[in-house]
Amino acid sequence: MERKSFEDMDCPVALALDQVGEWWSLLTLRDALEGSRRFEQFRESLDISTTMLKRRLYDLVEAGILSRHSISETSSRKEYWVPEKGRG
What we know:
The chain has helices at residues 12-20, 23-33, 39-46, 50-62, 84-87, and strands at 67-70, 78-81. By secondary structure, the protein is mainly α. A two-stranded antiparallel ribbon has the order 1-2. It is globular, with a radius of gyration of 14 Å.
């Protein structure tokens, strides 16, 4: 079943649902707000497949709800943070 988009609506609730309306995305955002930062923390907490989690994190970063940062200059590992838009 195809999900309806609310992007053309002039309603903040509808616009927020358009960004995080999928339940894995909401649970991922919840974990980020509670302090999860690394991929493995999200995966263990949510008991979600690697593929599904990658997709959800990518979508949340693309929407500006999460931001992705390198842990250090020498590491390829990333952390996810909730910017102002995600907190709003």
